[in-house]
Specification:
heterodimer; A: 325 residues; 0% strand; globular; B: mainly alpha; MetI-like fold; 3-stranded antiparallel sheet; two-stranded antiparallel sheet; 17 helices; 6% strand
Chain lengths: 325, 472
């Protein structure tokens, strides 16, 4: 087991190097640091000194890949590539373009993100699975057909409208929850209710449809027919046999998104004014803070790969047919 | 000539896409095994109904894709013909009434007065603060309070009648063609359709067409006297905006797949067919690209494009061209983030196919790799490609709205549902609420995406051999 996990981790290294190279190319080769400086300082009538000053302030005044002036190993380390890209591997994100420590900000902002993402995941999972089981129980009746139409319609509504509609109906018309904002500690719950409800409702369409397909696939299998043949009630068949076996793909589907929960939801957080990593990224994008966007790209990739590794491991844990080798 | 055609980059790609689709259709029409799944699509009621809706959207988008520049009069002093720098589409020209009739600011749907109060100088010198009349919306009415309801009802009825006439003419034409081809009497064909006894559910198709035509004509009749979906902050007609947004939505949904398709198909099949180091390299490539969160990759790429554009502002002849290039670039980068899924599917299928007897036999007989792929593998994975394209379309249309909200979508000057939502969402806090921009974007987007989703399901059911086998 340990050897397997270790090998999966080693596979991740070349991928992370690739991600790192892509971001480096995107942020420093496509546009030179001079272009970025000009953009930040206001596009026209920028003096050379101002550009140099901006670059020095943010550490972009080094050569890209190879420093001819430095000696020894420093000729490789005293470069933009090493300072801004290689150091990401050690999770040293450095300062953002307006001078704050990115690492500290991330460690502060991941908690509000999780406070939304985890309830949305758990409540959504419970609701979608129950609803899907309900549909499957009444399969090929009007309940089934009507539900599927409803689910497709819900899938066809942009997530933005769920948020706008939720804010409008629950907060503005009925004053049940604050429109946006956040509070420290336990007081946060009243700010979190609305985003969580909206997040769950927004996910019903695709989620329930997916689980319904899973259950229907499972129900067509031979062991289900055997269970029915030996006289089990439909309820027992569904809950004990079908649900149990369908949990394997459900579980692995959940595990792959677990690490990415840290990243938060871009749109939800910025609409509801929640100081999580999602709104952090959005703010960085609109302020054109390249340092933050670069860090988040790398962090996202790390978490995604972590998710893949966890999925593989969870497969071997829950599905006895899959063997480690 | 009073106008010269202009072909923007995205227009050219649309024309290529249409040519490809037409070529494929012509090819499929001659081969029974390719026609069969399409026949299944056309025999499903949901399939034809959604197809009619999608074609209607497509026609609006196509009209908006044919761009021209109008001749300017008077000609310059030297007598040479000059063309206006403004690039217009045929849709703009057809709806020039809507495009040009701007108000000062917000006005509600069917309103005759502005949404905000203004100070007006009375003839007797006093200043009155009230809602001023709109310059265009309902301007033909003398006493709006009394006449408006009747006027709207009368015009709707007029539009409905016109729509029904157009529909009857179209239907009669189709019936006549069918009767001639089948060599049956007209009444016989009509009865078969009315009873729903035709293999293709013409009743559903013509019914959908009738509803669309009626709605279209009523909207058209009203739109030239009122702002049927209100006006936005700068007084532009919202109905016009949302019609213009159709092209943006369709382009994002189709061009993205067009640009990603060659890479996904080629690499996916190559990985599965050749295995070994080719497989390793391609798998590494798509895992790496896939592991960067899509939104962030798009954000990074668009930010870089913005830096480039602001530093090379002279490289773009006009705002339209600049917005167009940004749209194209967005399609490209969306393609880069979304081709990996299809690539992985194709790889898996190619892995299976290469072990099948006829492929093994072809290899044993010394057929080259290229021929094997082109003749034996590619035709057998086309259904996966088609299903994926159909399923991806609606997701891409929805993605556009989200990306525009984050300001990394299409150019802010371009009409798109995302931009409409983005500029309207803050107005919800107003009292009374400015809801119509959101409602318009919602209505059109929902219709398009719902039709696309339903159609994609029908296509999947018709093309997927596993689902097809179970139905028999």
């Amino acid at each position: 087991m340990t050897a397997y996990i270790l090998r999966r981790m080693l596979y991740a290294i070349p991928i992370l190097i690739g991600v790192n190279l892509i971001t480096f190319a995107l942020f420093f080769v496509v546009n030179s640091p001079d272009d970025m400086a000009r953009m930040h300082l206001g596009e026209k009538r920028v003096t050379e000194e101002a550009i140099l000053g901006w670059k020095r302030e943010h550490g972009y005044d080094r050569p890209l890949l190879y420093n001819e002036e430095a000696r020894g190993l420093a000729s490789l380390t005293d470069t933009i590539f090493f300072e801004k890209s290689v150091k990401l591997f050690a999770f040293q994100f450095g300062p953002s373009d307006d001078g704050r420590d990115i690492g500290y900000d991330i460690s502060q902002r991941m908690w509000p993100s999780l406070a939304i993402a985890i309830p949305v995941l758990l409540v959504g999972l419970a609701f979608n699975i129950s609803y899907a089981l309900f549909i499957v129980f009444f399969r090929a009746t009007y309940v089934d057909i009507g539900s599927v139409v409803l689910l497709v319609a819900m899938m066809s509504i942009s997530g933005l409208f769920y948020i706008i509609g939720g804010q409008f109906i629950l907060s503005k018309l009925f004053h049940l929850a604050p429109i946006s904002g956040y509070d420290q500690g336990l007081n946060a719950w009243k700010f979190l209710t609305l985003p969580v409800i909206v997040g769950v409702i927004g996910g019903i369409g695709s989620g329930t449809r997916w689980y319904r397909t899973l259950f229907l696939e499972e129900i067509a299998k031979d062991y289900v027919r055997t269970a029915r043949a030996k006289g089990l009630s439909e309820r027992l068949v569904l809950f004990r046999h079908v649900l149990g076996n369908a949990l394997i793909p459900i579980l692995t589907g959940v595990v792959v998104v677990l690490p990415l929960l840290f990243m938060g939801s871009l749109i939800t957080e910025s609409f509801f004014g929640i100081p999580g990593l999602g709104s952090y990224t959005i703010d960085a994008i609109s302020n054109q803070d390249f340092a933050i966007v670069r860090s988040m790209v790398f962090l996202g990739a790390v978490l995604y790969i972590l998710g893949l590794i966890l999925t593989d491991i969870s497969y071997t844990l829950v599905d006895p047919r899959v063997r480690l080798q | 000539m009073p106008l010269i055609p202009v072909v923007l980059w995205t227009d050219a790609l649309v024309f290529i896409l249409i040519a490809l689709v037409a070529g494929f259709a012509a090819h499929a029409a001659r081969h029974e095994h390719l026609r069969d799944p399409w026949r299944r699509v056309l025999r499903s009621r949901v399939g034809v109904a959604t197809l009619v809706v999608l074609v209607a959207f497509g026609l609006v988008g196509l009209l908006d894709t044919l761009h021209v520049r109008l001749k300017q009069d008077p000609p310059s002093a030297t007598g040479e013909v000059r063309y206006s720098p403004e690039v217009l589409s045929l849709l703009d020209l057809a709806l020039s009434g809507l495009r040009e009739r701007q108000e000062k600011t917000y006005s509600a749907p069917f309103a005759t007065h502005l949404f905000v109060k203004e100070s007006m100088n009375q003839p007797d010198g006093r200043v009155l603060r009230d809602y001023p009349r709109l310059e265009h919306g309902g301007a033909h009415l003398e006493d709006p309070a009394r006449q408006r309801a009747w006027d709207i009802a009368w015009r709707s009825l007029l539009g409905l009648v016109k729509g029904l006439i157009a529909w009857s003419l179209l239907t009669a034409g189709i019936l006549w063609l069918m009767a001639r081809r089948q060599g049956r009497a007209l009444s016989e064909v009509r009865d078969a359709i009315l009873a729903g006894r035709t293999p293709i559910p013409w009743r559903t198709a013509l019914g959908t067409l009738g509803v669309l035509l009626a709605l279209g004509f009523v909207a058209g009749e009203l739109a030239f006297k009122y702002h049927i979906l209100g006006t936005d902050k700068v007084g532009e007609d919202v109905f016009f905006q949302t019609l213009k947004s159709i092209r943006t939505g369709l382009l994002i949904g189709t061009l993205t797949t067009l640009v990603m398709l060659p890479a996904a198909v080629l690499l996916g099949i190559a990985a599965g067919y050749f295995r070994g180091w080719v497989d390793d390299v391609i798998q590494y490539l798509y895992t790496t690209l896939n592991s960067i969160p899509g939104v962030l990759l798009i954000a990074a790429a668009i930010l870089m494009l913005q830096v480039y554009m602001s530093n090379h502002a002279d490289a773009f002849a006009s705002l339209v061209e600049r917005a167009d290039l940004r749209l194209l670039f967005l399609c490209l980068i969306l393609g880069v983030t979304s081709w990996t899924g299809l690539c992985r599917l194709l790889r898996g299928e190619a892995l299976k196919l290469r072990e099948i007897d006829y492929v093994q036999a072809a290899q044993a007989l010394g057929v080259g790799h290229f021929t094997v792929i082109a003749r034996h593998i590619l035709p057998n994975v086309m259904h996966i490609v088609l299903i994926t394209l159909a399923l991806d379309f609606s997701g891409l249309v929805l993605a556009e709205a989200v990306l525009s909200y984050v300001n990394i979508g299409v150019d802010p000057t371009m009409n798109s549902w995302g931009n409409m939502i983005n500029s309207a969402r803050l107005e919800l806090a107003r009292e009374p609420v400015v809801w119509w921009s959101l409602a318009a974007a919602f209505l059109f987007m929902f219709t398009l995406v719902l039709a696309a989703n339903l159609f994609a399901d029908v296509v999947r059911d018709a093309f997927d051999p596993r689902l097809r086998g179970g139905g028999r």
